[in-house]
Automatic annotation (TrEMBL):
The keyword Transcription does not apply. Gene3D superfamilies: Skp domain. It comes from Candidatus Desulfovibrio kirbyi. This is Outer membrane chaperone Skp. Keywords: Signal.
């Protein structure tokens, strides 16, 4: 009888352990990877953003570059010992003015880039979520963010996300009022 009680307890403990292990089985996790850098450079909204930035800031950038080149030439002519202090002061003022214009220009460009980047990321996140739900993925990881050293080809959803970003962008663009679409293309 003394042997039966510990044996019965051991059997009960073993059965309870097996039942708990079956209940706490780890669910299957499906993880996908996306190269967001690739999406951010090849997608339709990224290309449209580049065109928009060039049309909005291209002329001003060229003007600032030309003014910079002119100042460099002027600096070369000021190296002469015969150059008056007045000309040197004029050069310094012109350089400071150009530096200020350049800083303001770069600030404007940066603000616009941030806005466009946020719009792009919103599209990319929406596209990733839709692809994940449609294909049954639990997680999607950005390969460019680091940490992923290898992923099987079936796990790479970059092309799917790229296609979905382009679809969402076209849908969003089609929903804009006509006059807004024209101003974006300029």
């Amino acid at each position: 009888m003394r042997i039966m009680i510990p044996t019965a307890l051991a059997v009960c403990f073993f059965m309870a352990n097996a039942a708990l292990a079956a209940d706490s089985a780890v669910p299957t996790v499906k993880i996908g990877v996306v190269d967001m850098q690739d999406v951010a450079t090849r997608s339709d909204p990224a290309q449209a953003a580049r065109k928009q930035m060039e049309s909005k800031f291209g002329k001003e950038r060229q003007t600032l570059e030309k003014q910079g080149e002119d100042l460099k030439k002027k600096a070369e002519s000021l190296k002469s010992a015969k150059t008056s202090e007045e000309k040197k002061l004029d050069f310094i003022r012109a350089k400071q003015a150009l530096d200020q214009k350049t800083r303001n220009f770069l600030r404007q460009v940066e603000q616009e880039e941030i806005k466009l980047r946020q719009e792009m990321m919103t599209l990319a996140f929406s596209a990733s979520a839709e692809i994940a739900q449609a294909k049954g993925f639990n997680f999607i990881v950005d390969v460019t963010a680091g940490g992923v050293l290898y992923a099987d080809k079936p796990m790479d959803l970059t092309e799917d996300v790229l296609t979905e970003v382009n679809r969402l962008y076209k849908k969003k663009d089609a929903e804009k009022p006509q006059d807004e679409r024209k101003s974006d293309k300029k």
